[in-house]
Amino acid sequence: MQTLQDLTRDAVSTLLLSPGEQEVDRVMTICNACRYCEGFCAVFPAMARLLEFNKADIHYLANVCHNCGACLHSCQYAAPHEFAVNVPQAMAAVRPQTYGEFAWPKALGQLYQRAGLTMALATAGGLAMFLVLVLIVNQGSWLHAPLAGNFYAIFPHNLLAAMFGLVFLYVIVALGIGVRSFWRMLSPPAVSHVVMGAASLDATGNVLTLKYLDGGHGKGCNDDDDRFTQRRRVFHHFTFYGFVCCFIATSLGTIYHYFLNDPAPYPFFSLPVLFGTVGGIGLLIGPAGLLWLNLVRHPDHAVVGQQPMDRGFIALLILVSATGLVLLACRDTGVMGLLLAIHLGAVMGFFLTMPYGKFAHGVFRSAALLKSALDRRMDGLTVARNA
Ligand code: SF4
Ligand code: SF4
After folding, report:
1. Within 10 Å of residue 346's Cβ, how many Cβ atoms?
2. H helix intervals, 17-156
3. Ligand 2 atom nearest to 91, measured from its CA
């Protein structure tokens, strides 16, 4: 008897494919016959398990692909061959569709897909203006006497905690609902806790090291030509670990405030400020490098309609880190309040757009890599049983 999971999977497979999904179906069918790139990344072993590609498979494969470009630069069926196989571009064209279809609420995801840069900058700018207005109403001027870095003299701590706490909760709920629906569509195999734990460790290792940006041979991606470079991996790591350091800085500030009865401002050589500074520098170097690579990337890797979303996200990250570092440098001056308002507006804009743009790719990719690790574990168990 068919399980509910099987029935759902069959229903999903009968849905009409979009043109982008049809292209992934076409290139994967050719790759499945060729299999030259089998060892490059997790896409090809996952593809080899399938005979045909339904909607769920296509979105799964598209989110496992890291767009390293290696398979395009090695492909004997790439243009000018009549097959014109371009796996990274086909996958890249489908990924925004995943974010849009699984975004919660759906209407916001579709809006961000259409006008990523506009929405990102408008959100950050609008929130910054709102906070500047609050500042003027409260203080009566852009300027004030130096406050020794005491942000809470401008915006009360409880107001900030309530505003950012609500937004953070919203982001967790929106991303959580989206990735839960995506995970259900992937129909992962039913496994024991032991297998799930081991697969989760595999997937976490692959996410934290960005294993599949190594091109399958360890030498890295193809960016603008046939050479391999580790630049994309390095700039992704600056971005990711910069974000992690900023998160640690905020968490430490929260612990100091609520559990150690030690409210901000903190001296420069305190842990929250040091983590924040290192994180801010990482979040400046990483996104600036990714923006540069985005601008010089080989045109065959890019999907023109996707660039506003990519660049909007990168611009917002640069705005967040640059305003944070300038704020730190000027925190004991009369423009601290103005800089604080602009920085908080940028951070708020970044948080609000997190579930509807490029940030989501990390979450969906992690889920897809977990499914890939689970499938590999199950294959290993089957082989061991049959031996
Ligand atoms: S990308 Fe090209 S070379 Fe690689 S498996 Fe597909 S068809 Fe073969
Ligand atoms: S990760 Fe790289 S090698 Fe794998 S499918 Fe994507 S572009 Fe090709």
Report:
1. 27
2. 19-34, 43-48, 55-64, 70-73, 87-102, 106-114, 116-139
3. 6
Give the number of other CB atoms < 10 A from CB of residue 280.
23
CA distance 100 to 110: 5
Q: Give, for 185, the enclosing helix (H) or strand (E).
A: helix 157-186
Atom 6 in ligand 2: residue holding the nearest Cα: 65
Ligand 2 atom nearest the C-alpha of 70 is 3
- Report the C-alpha gap between 348 and 204 in whole angstroms: 28
Rounded Cα gap, residues 8 and 260, in angstroms: 51
DSSP string, 273-287: HHHHHHHHHHHHHHH
Residue 58: pLDDT band with limits 50, 70, 90: very high
Q: How far is CA 247 from CA 100, 283, 367, in A?
A: 26, 12, 21
**CA 152 – CA 245 distance, rounded (Å):** 22
Compute, in angstroms, the gap from residue 66 CA to the centroid of ligand 2: 6
The closest alpha carbon to 67, from 203, 213, 225, belongs to 213
Query: Which of 92, 103, 87, 75 has its CA nearest to residue 26?
Result: 87
Residue-wise pLDDT tens digits, 138-160? 767 777 888 888 888 888 899 88
Q: What does residue 158 show for φ and ψ, rounded to 5 degrees? A: -65, -35
Question: DSSP class of residue 42?
Answer: S
Cα–Cα distance for residue pair 336/340, rounded to 1 Å: 6
**154 phi, psi to nearest 5 deg:** -95, -55
Atom 4 of ligand 2 has which residue's CA nearest to it?
A: 41
Eight-class DSSP state of 150: -
pLDDT digits (tens, 9 = 90+) for 221-230: 999 899 999 9
CA pair distance 72, 45, nearest whole angstrom:
17
Helix, strand, coil share of the chain (percent; to 5)? 70, 0, 25
> Residues enclosing ligand 2, CB less than 6 A?
37, 40-41, 43, 65-71, 87-88, 91, 212
Give the span between the Cα atoms of 235 and 274, in whole angstroms: 21
Reading phi first (left if > 0) and then psi (alpha if -120 to 50, else beta), residue 16 is in beta
